[in-house]
Amino acid sequence: MSLDTLAIVALEILNSITILVLLALGLALIFGMMRIVNLAQGEFFTAGAFTVLSAVHYAALPLWAGMLLAPIVVGAIGIGIERLIIRRLYGRPLDVMLATWGVSLLLIGLITVIFGAVTQGIPFALGNFEVGRYSYPEYRIVMTTVAALLMLGVYLLFRYTGFGRRARATIANPEMAAAAGINTERMFMLTFGLGAALAGAAGAIMAPIVGVVPTMGALYIARAFITVVVGGPIVLLGTLSSASILGFIEALISRFSLFKIGTAGHCAPPPCEISIGGSAFFGQIALLIFAIVLLRLLPQGLSGFWRERG
Amino acid sequence: MRAQSSTELLTALLLAVPLLAVPWAFKPYTANVLAVYMIYGILALSLSLIWGYAGIMSFGQTAFFGIGAYAYGAIGLNLINRTHQTHLALLGGLAAATLLAAIVGYFMFYGRISDVYASIITMALTLVLFAFAVSTGGDEWVIGVARFGGFNGMFGQGESSQNIANFQIPPVTLWLPWMKEPFEFKINRESAAGYFLVLAVSGLMYLGARGLLASRLGRVAVGIRENEARVASLGYDTRFYKFALFTIAGAIAGLAGMLFAAWGRFVNPDRFGLGFAASTVVYVLLGGRTTLLGGFVGAVMIGYLTSYLAEIVPFGTIPPDTARWMAVLMEGARRIVREAPLLVQGAVLVGVVLVLEDGITPPLFRLLKRYARWGWWILLPLVALHFGQRVACQQADLCLW
After folding, report:
1. Cβ neighbour number for residue B239 with a 10 Å cutoff
2. pTM summary value
């Protein structure tokens, strides 16, 4: 393998990690801080993409303005849903999953009613750069930068601001925090809104490179969940570590075929071959199998394992 | 105790009289539609078995349904023209679903992952299978004569080399040693055998699940739902009981999947899709997760509601001279009705969780219990009379609807 091939493979791995981080960050925040699984997260992602779409197509705003708008809009939607539905279900984790699944179906339905069930694209003006014999899209580097900034932002927010301290206190011990004068209900609401906003930002950033369609959330949600489950309870550390491992596996298996099976189908030229590996689909299969086996070994996920040892 | 069994007998009669009379009382279309709702009901039964009784929420029960359907289809297509029966296909489909459930269940329960993780893993499983089934459109995805067909679904390709002579997945076909010729379970003008097959399997699965829950396995499972730590400290290996129940439920879901493939003579990746997974949960939630009948009730209700909504198309054409706001409203109503199945499912999920926690079957059953006397003397004769009249007029071809 020559040097430029190695570089391009490294970039592909970086890109896989970036996408997993973007998809999983909001979900991990809500799951890690509030112990609830939000199945509507994929539709928050979709809503972010559609915010960009409407800003660019209907309001004629520049792309970056639409992308800044998306987390605000989706965060507001998230806060609304928390007030209306999730607030009533704290302490009932399965019911939260069911209710958020219902919200997810309702959001898909509503977005389809408003925008129609067609795939739309968002044009953008960034080119490719050369890596030896290969060319690589510049936008992917932008995505990686944004993902890193988002993670840094979440870290700083929860580590160094008053809001972050109060939120962490609420998560650690809600009764004690309430007794110390923290409005815990507001903290839950804002945390959920922040998780939704992160999903909206992810949707906005990925909107130009994917087809924007009301059912797009379902394409990404499985990977986001696998990342969060493998990551375990610590939000940033878990997300980053599991996204790194899973992204590595996904990128490698998506790119290289592991082995080939011959079949006796009616194809030209016979004999037919099915190559295992070498497509995005096998990358996802590998993710799922890896996650299931890993959970057999480390039921608490990666970060839970480290916490127990350290 | 006696009043209890009397109410149950009443319920059974109230259900059995109409269901047994359907093929004679209505056109074959009704039996056909009802059969598929009952197949969904069996799938829902498998979910309520593990969710309502062992507290394991599987969002991906459809994975086993789909595997059963695909395996039945693949084996059935290959063997039907050689052996003229589908015994092996039935066994193979059941084995495939059971095996998948056992493998996934082993990793989930022996890894002691929490309930929430189990739900996510099962959901991811069905989504990945969906991605797999979709990506099998190419010519190389063939088992013998059975093409996976990607989005188009599974069908057989003719032996005549060109792909023109496609044929469908066979219906359930029996050819036992003492039979002169193979018997196909179909639903059409001549025969309602397929309907009765589905009805019989539904009844058997219901009774079997009841028996299972009355057995040691079922009682320990209920104990696990109530307090897993306590059951474990009494010396039960809770991992094994969860694993066993999950595998059995997977097998039942696979059975439903085989019936589905045989009923529609077709299976496509939608059976693994998120929409179908959601509707399964909706059936159970609406019908009531703590009763085994709930899934059937939910499936029939949602089924009729969505098929009714799919038939009405408001404002077929919008005249060009309508006011602009009027046209927007009409177009909006049209789109809302088009998306109605999704919106109804979402609303049911949110609504039942927030308002009606037990679903609708338990309150109905309580009502019937309280007014059992009325049921015996008024409801049952009315139902019998109505269906008797339906049968009479349908047979004489005099029915107005």
Report:
1. 17
2. 0.84
